[in-house]
UniProtKB/TrEMBL annotation:
Reaction catalyzed: a 1,2-diacyl-sn-glycero-3-phosphocholine + H2O = a 1,2-diacyl-sn-glycero-3-phosphate + choline + H(+)
Region described as Disordered: spans on this chain: 586-618
Gene3D superfamilies reported for this sequence: Endonuclease Chain A (3.30.870.10)
Signal peptide interval: none
Keyword field: Hydrolase, Lipid metabolism, Repeat
PROSITE patterns: PLD
Name of the protein in question: Phospholipase D1/2
One Pfam family per UniProt: PLDc
Residues of the PLD phosphodiesterase domain: 162-189, 822-849
GO biological-process terms attached to the record: phospholipid catabolic process
GO molecular function list: phospholipase D activity
Amino acid sequence: MSQMTAIRSRQLDQLNTAEGEPLCAISAPDWFIRPDPRFGPPYARKRAGNNVRFFTNGEDYFKDVAAAISNARHSIYISGWQINYEVRLDGDRRLWDCLAEALRKNEKPDIYLMPWLSPKVGMDTGDLETMLASFLLNAGLEQRKVWCLPAIQQSDMDQLGTFFSHHQKMVVIDNQIAYVGGIDLAYGRRDDNNFRLAADGRSERELYNPCIPPLREIPAHQQYPYMTTAELIGATLMEGDALSRVQRWIGLRLDNEHVNAVRQRKQAALNWLKDRLKGGLRLFGVGAAYTTGGALDMARFLREYLGDEEVRQHLPPRISQLEKDLLDWAEEVEQQSGEYSQALQIRGNTLFNQWVEQSGAGAFFTWLNNTPPERLTAQALEQFSAIATPFLLYLHNTLDRMSDAQQGQPYSYLSDPAVRLLPPGGRTIDPARQPRMPWHDVQVRLEGTAVEDFSRNFIERWNSLQARFDGTTQAMPALLAGGLGLVSRNLAPQPFRPHYLPPAQPVAAQGSLFAQVLRSTPYRQLREERQGALQAHASRLPQPTEGFALPDARQANCLQAMLQAIAGAQQFIYIENQFFQSDFGEVDYATPPKDDGEEAAGPPNQDKKDPWQDGPMQSLMDIEKLPDYPRYAARLGLEGRFQDNATRLQHLNFYALAEMIHNREADEFVSALLKVFANQAAVEASVNLQAPQPRVLNTLCEALATRIEAAIEMGEDFHVYMVLPVYPEGPLNDITLMTQIHLTMQSLSLGSHSLVRRIQRAMAMKAQMDSGIPEDVASDNIDKHQRRGEAWKVFEREDWKRYLTLLNLRTWEDFHGRPVTEQIYVHSKLLIADDRVAILGSANINDRSQLGDRDSELAVVISGRQAQLSQLNGCTPQPICREVQQLRIALWRKLFALDVTHEQVRVAPATQLEPMLEQPAAPATWQAIQKQAKDNATAYQEAFIHIPRNHASIWPTWPDNNSGSMPFEHAFWENPSTAELPKNVAGFITELPIYWTRRENNDSGFNLSVLAHNDKNERNTLQASVSLVSEGTT
């Protein structure tokens, strides 16, 4: 089976004793990468002399990094995809508090923060707020100590560049301690071994569950203990805490006047506003709204802004007419002196919401006040970017300059941990009836020689950004000049003054471990890093010893290291990853047997003309398939055949739509209509931006399959364990998330060259060849049946589980007598081979992370110098790295619920698995794990009808509408159905349903170059860039 052995780690020659007995052969694979033109240059060399401490939950990591930050003496480097200044690290101590504590010591460190600069609309990771809060740390210091520069993306993806990110997660303290892995210093990441669904002391933005709609609205009169982005801007631009506090008092007093006016209106109008127009009333201003403003406030603002002649000159015709209508409405409101008819309210708020959705200025103002619009046209997004990006760069330049001479003390409300950022839209999940989503991840603390390379990574990236803006002048957008001019007289644009960092210094050895730092780095970023090094040197800093050469290709170190580890593994591979999306061949249409292991009596009942089954995707993509379309099409101006989505939107009667919303006569239809418009336009826009790649490109699936095929051919025991999330974070009615699931299921089990099918095919070939059939005949036989859609006849019955264990994680709790379940979100990016090597960092198994030309990633390879022995297969001693083995054992103890400490956790420990922790390669181990995972999956499926399972739709209740709603729907939580208590669940592991979504079309047609995303927020950017996007949670 020569085609099965294309990747082999090495050839081992057996040595024998004088008596002819074979000696134990121990291979010594090289886990560390070397230069290879296919993957670009290694970022760093293999370094000896390192110590590590692994963290298998966010709580332990956050406590450790909080102490390290607080005790820093010289420098702190923090880079991340998401960095939230108010994230709780240790009890109620925020990141901001730890940084402030470090600055109160006699030896004050220099602090540098580099969050990724997110696009804000549809994807806002909080980088602006973190930048504002970090600059305020300089207030009252004799010498500036804090710098922050959000990192603009540096991918090689041309027109699609906006959709890619800096995905590294790293902290370096004093050039002595480095933290790296999958955990950002961000909301929702702090979890322990209990995986609680209950709030358990968490509140507001820490109540993280993007898979369900937030039901709890913070009432207006309870919003005083919160800050908005606009207030933070005002606090940073005002010189001194006293003025900032006055700003807050005035803003609150004014807002309360408007709230009182609203409360005096008719209850029907108030209810409608409350239900439908929450996001359209909070407006920009110094001391911006902590409560919902009134119609008079809206009218005054619109008249002031829209009356500006310079603004009106840049408006397209459609927006000009819309804004003229708004001005007419504003004038009518002011003439009525606070007595507003219901019709006037409906007309005004309809116009205002259209303006917010169709103009970048409207979207910008609402975003600043933490009420981002749910829908945006492509034109509005373009306008928004034209306002927001210059504003953010201008704001950074101004604050960076002002930080050199901050007056007074840090804003006292920011210094108070009780004052939190207002959650987006003033909403959170309701902890009394909705679960948070537990978070599973891995991080490592490293001390020793490799720390230099982590410091170098930060410095090179930082200097590249300093060089990009060196000497440039960022002007304030004209529409903001008047408002921001009120808060400071020192806002005139000035050239950017760079602050370059000197090269990283060597670090003394500490320990016996080898480590090599890996990156995925676009060629553009490498060029800009070199330019940063040149300009830093030109500013009289020392020349670095590395990173000065002219780059010739992107770096795909993470992919190279993973491929090398897979090929070199001899006993087992253990993978935890947020994604598994890899080249899977062709989409397969065959229908499997009814149950796992059940042999089919004959060919499946398959429609050759239309192999796909219609499912929820079709209800989200076709307007004419909406149930009430014939009833409302003419009324809304949608009747007839239109060529494209844009034409339909031009005919949409927004006033009729507003009337339908007000009368509550078609809530479900209206919501579905807007979603279909958004989805159609999103797909079209993604394809038009740049020609999509034809398929998923990375070869990690092939590498795993090839290694298993080699074991099958040789008759060896070899096993791969893979732990994945149930599905990517986000609501299951998001078409891009649904497409992510499609890619994952095709990669795992459904595609023609999926991992499961490759294993089954190899097992079938091995069986035929063992029975005397020549290899070429066996291969032709299998190919023939597969072309006919009859793979079930020759290999789909093979027991692939002998070589592969696929797991999800889930838990459940009792919420006031109601059983509630949620997935445990696997966010790790970890590969362990033979307990000898660990690769962990920020890189997912998808094209974005692995190919090197897209998202920037950071990881590390860790292995031991002196191997110890362990009986991984239960009988033969094998060389291991003790630290790596202890990491895997700690993870297994956690996933088997062996370290649960909270008495309210309903999941029992899987104690029967504890004796097998040190024997991952033994058949008895994977058999026991698979049995427990299958038992747990069965128990959950019997109790909860909505969770994924084999042979079910992507929405498991589809198409039986009587079987209950899904968790992404409000009705699921507002009218809960009765669920049974899961019986005999032990451990958090569940069997991954490999036939979930089979034969159902969940490919939306999104541009594959953008998909295989890293985080849900990135998916939202693409949807926010097109017409009328309806976004659920973030």
